[in-house]
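User: tokens in, sequence out, please.
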């Protein structure tokens, strides 16, 4: 009996059970990623920002579909960073993309070995945070010593304006009212030594 599919071409088949489980885990893990959640919630991309999460998940799953060349942590991290930059105009410097990439590879290994523990964990955690506000910290380098240089030492006396500009108005320190003398002139106060 002749082969119904000519050799050299693959049939358009449904994804394997392994890929379906992996896709569920990737979607759940991306739902836990604070950077992506913030970008989607705040509509940093176009109005269809929520669709970008699905796009990102499908890109990751597709990368694992080719069993001849499985991606490594760096490949997945670069894919995450690239899509965040292209779709949300966001450059991440917090190493969260690397953490997500490592989790994705652990998930792939788990599912490839017939385990679903990590999948269950990600889905449970994703269900718990559904509908909740995203908690984010302002960027602080993980190792401040790495970021320090001699030029930073020279600039010690320069006030850091960035911190107060990024704070919401309710968190900013109260502004001092100008002092007016009896003639109606504003008193200029000396700032101190520089």
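Assistant: Sequence out:
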């Amino acid at each position: 009996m002749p082969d119904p599919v000519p050799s050299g071409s693959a049939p358009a088949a449904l994804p394997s059970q392994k890929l379906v489980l992996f896709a569920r885990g990737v979607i759940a893990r991306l739902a836990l990623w604070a950077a992506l959640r913030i970008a989607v919630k705040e509509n940093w991309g176009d109005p269809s920002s929520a669709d970008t999460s699905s796009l990102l998940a499908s890109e990751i799953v597709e990368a694992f579909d080719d069993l001849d060349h499985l991606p490594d942590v760096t490949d997945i991290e670069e894919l995450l960073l690239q899509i965040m930059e292209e779709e949300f105009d966001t450059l991440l410097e917090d190493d969260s993309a690397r953490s997500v990439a490592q989790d994705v590879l652990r998930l792939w290994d788990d599912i490839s070995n017939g385990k679903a523990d990590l999948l269950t964990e990600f889905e449970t955690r994703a269900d718990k945070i559904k509908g909740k506000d995203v908690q984010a910290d302002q960027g602080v380098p993980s190792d401040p010593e790495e970021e320090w240089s001699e030029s930073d030492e020279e600039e010690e006396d320069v006030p850091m304006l960035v911190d107060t500009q990024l704070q919401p108005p309710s968190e900013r320190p109260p502004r001092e009212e100008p002092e007016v003398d009896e003639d109606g002139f504003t008193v200029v106060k000396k700032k101190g030594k520089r």
